[in-house]
Amino acid sequence: MITSRLSLVLLLIFSPIALAELEFRDPWIKNLPASVPVRAGYMTILNPLSEAVSIVSLRSKAFTSIEIHQTIEQDGMMHMEQVTSLKIESNSSVQLAPGGLHLMMMNPSEPTQPGDLLEIVIVLDDGSEQRVEMQVIR
Amino acid sequence: MNKSSIAIVALLALIGGFSISWVISSNKPIELEAGLWFGEQARALPEFELVDHNGQVLNRTSLTGKWSLMFFGYTHCPDICPASLQTMSDMVQAIEDPDVAAALRVYFISVDPDRDNAEVLASYVTYFNPDFTGATAIMEKLDPLTRSLGIAHDIRNKVEGNPGYDVDHSSAIVLINPNAEFAGLFGAPHDALAMARDLTRIVEYN
Question: Which domains can be identified in chain A, with CATH numbers?
């Protein structure tokens, strides 16, 4: 009885259906010289789940803050806008790529170098978190 | 109509005018993939004076004798500016004719002079290519150049004590000929290989 209850508890804790799981492909950060206090991060986000999922915030020990931004061409000028919640529809993907959606990563805690692997935490609208290692690329 | 819209309309009118007159006047057109070439309709730049990342004056005279590509942006721009500079760096590498490569100079002009001093610009532009030049000046001195090239720029949300403001800016890469005339432009998104082929055609043709 105790064993079966324990199993149930363990099952609930580790059950893969309990938490949303997105897939993050080719996460990378464009390196810049230390004099520049911002970096942009890119990746493709896949949502294989039966429901839409939104990314509501991001954080990392490597940056003071991370926001999702979109570069938009408006009146012939390039303009950046913050995306406060990024929705990824069920069974679809969203691409973060140069010239469009990107992670705006502010104030690196240490100078970044090509080859560095920096961990970020992605917070979803159901409160769950996923960790992603992003590679710094020259 | 705000300032930027006026600048865009002016730029479009300029391009339209150039295109039409180019088609009429040119009997030997150069086929371009990515760029817009003004041919005989190239227009002299006005007098202007910026300071480059080595502390040297950058004016109309310093642009004579070589082909110049100019991109306008700011170093705190994380996405489109590094992408454009990287494209120009890839483009230079992709130019096969050494004479064409030697005839070309690349400038990054900061429209955010408060944050982009010579030191910041030096480390920024040379990160992409040691031969690239960064330059800027106070707004009053930037304006004659940007206006003549149809480059709009606008500082947004700048408040005292907030260093995190954005600067909207045109994404075009401008081409200036060895007579210091506005000779063409490449609109975004920029393709390094197509630009390398276009510039090779333009420089070899002239």
Answer: 20-137 (2.60.40.1890)
